[in-house]
Amino acid sequence: MKKSIKFIILGLVALTVVAGGAYAMMAPVTMPLTMAYNKAAELAFTEQGVVSAGQVVSVYPLAQGSLLSVDVQEGQPIRSGDVICVIDAEPLRLRLSELQAVIRSYEVQMKTAETQEKSSSAVNADRIKLQNALIEQSQRDLARAQEDLERMELLYEGGAVSQSDVENARALAEKYSSALTASRHELTVITAGANTGGMAEYYQALIDSAEATQKLLEQEIGNCTVKATVSGQVTRLPVSGTNVVSAAVPVAEITTIDATLIEAYVSTQDVDYVKAGDTVELVLKRREGDVRFPGTVTQVDTTATTRLSTLGVEERKVKVQISPILAGSGVESLGIGYSIDVRFLLYKEDNKLTVPKSALFRDGGKDMLWVVRDGKAQAIQVTLGMELRTETVVESGLSDGDVVVTDANNGALKDGVKIKGE
After folding, report:
1. Rounded Cα–Cα distance for residues 170 and 86 (Å)
2. What CATH number belongs to 29-41+350-421?
3. Residue 190: which of 132, 257, 256, 272 has the closest Cα?
4. Given this chain, do its domains 29-41+350-421 and 56-85+226-255 carry the same CATH topology?
5. Cα–Cα–Cα angle for 233, 235, 240, rounded to 5 degrees
6. DSSP per residue over 387-404, as a string?
7. CB–CB of 218/62 below 8 Å?
8. Cα 393 to chain centroid, rounded
């Protein structure tokens, strides 16, 4: 009897073990899951910025010569467009008057030539004489243009003019050089007896060349009145106490006082995605709540510097300057030295499916995911898009509402395994 009870007990234990093993094999595996759904996919990062003082702008003259007057004093407020100083433009006016007389003479001769050409062709000797005059004028024009180009290059090095201004001056010098080459070639053709056109068109060429020089002279005369390019305060006045103005020396330095600038330092890993003109979100932390308003990136430095992170780790970062847009923000001004968060948005697209990076794995060179369908794991191939901070955009292969296993390295994963979310 005792033996029978013992066998019964052993049988029950064995049955329990077998049933437990079977249940263990049939029971779903518990692991973390996430549901994929269409949402806005963003790639952004935030850096701490600091409100800096206004910029110091050096004002360089676009003309040179004797100084007639200085119209400002050091320390005084100044507005953009106010006159800083006046350079004597009389020598330029004399040149302009002479040139205008030459143009009028050319116009009379052109009209006479037009009348003569209606009845007879021009004499070859006159054409040679005219062509020589055109060559001489082209030489003078080229010399002036080269002088202007050299002055513009000096001003560009000093930050007073833009690259576009230098390119325009270079283009004009090249134009005069080409005109001189063409005139010399034309003289060779005329001397050889070729009849390439009437006198009127040569006078017209002289007029065109002279009028181009006239425009340059008029521009130089206008530049003799040197004006402020920004509003602010005159903090330095090098032109005071001198009698000659040079294009290589600034006449004044103006510190802006009504504009604020925010400086932030961006990691070298992220700065390639930031460029001048980008819009950023600025966050000013206040006791009553954060104030958010936009800003515009105005400058990105080309070199990196070593900065200490909040954890005391050295990082290579690039300085980025941002101009805040306060209109409509409720913020009247930003104090110098204020801390402000700068949020850079590198990428944003609506209605995108994203999954955690940990959910992805490679199989045979293909990008794969584990999804749960009918309670069982299933590996599917997907096409990936933009890689975000902790997630990756899935362009195809995944559907809105699919449940994804977030840890693709879980050793229990294989096709058909029952899955239960944590």
Report:
1. 27
2. 2.40.420.20
3. 132
4. no
5. 115
6. E-SSEEEEEES--TT-EE
7. no
8. 28
- pTM of the complete model: 0.43
Question: Cβ distance 13 to 308 under 8 Å?
Answer: no
Kindly tell me the sign of the dihedral angle through the C-alpha atoms of 130, 136, 142, 145: negative
C-alpha 201: how far from its chain's center? 46
Range list of β-strands (E), 22-171:
29-31, 33-35, 39-52, 56-59, 65-70, 77-78, 83-87
* Residues whose CB is less than 8 angstroms from the CB of residue 61 and which lie 6 or more positions away in sequence, other chains included: 85, 87, 223, 226, 245, 246, 247, 251
Tracing tokens 């100044």 back to the chain, one arrives at 78
Considering only the C-alpha atoms of the chain, give the largest distance between any 2 of them, rounded to a whole number of Å. Answer: 150
Contacts 24+ apart (CB under 8 A), 302-308: 304/268, 304/271, 305/265, 307/265
Strands 29-31, 419-421: parallel, antiparallel or unpaired by DSSP?
parallel
Distance CA 52, CA 339 (A): 10
Q: Where are the domains of the chain?
A: 29-41+350-421, 56-85+226-255, 89-222
Q: How far apart (Å, rounded) are the C-alpha atoms in residues 62 and 221? A: 10
Per-residue pLDDT of the chain (422 residues; tens, 9 = 90+): 455 666 566 655 555 554 454 444 457 899 999 999 999 999 888 999 988 766 788 999 988 899 999 999 988 888 899 999 999 999 989 999 998 998 998 898 888 877 776 655 545 677 778 878 888 888 888 888 888 888 888 888 877 777 887 788 888 888 888 888 888 888 787 776 544 456 788 888 888 988 998 998 899 899 999 999 888 888 889 998 889 898 888 999 987 755 578 999 999 988 988 999 999 999 999 888 899 999 999 999 999 999 887 778 888 999 999 999 888 888 877 776 789 999 999 888 999 999 999 999 999 999 999 999 999 999 999 999 998 989 999 999 999 999 999 999 998 899 999 998 88
Fold of the domain built from segment(s) 56-85+226-255: OB fold (Dihydrolipoamide Acetyltransferase, E2P) (2.40.50)
- On the CB side of 87, CA atoms within 13 Å amount to 25
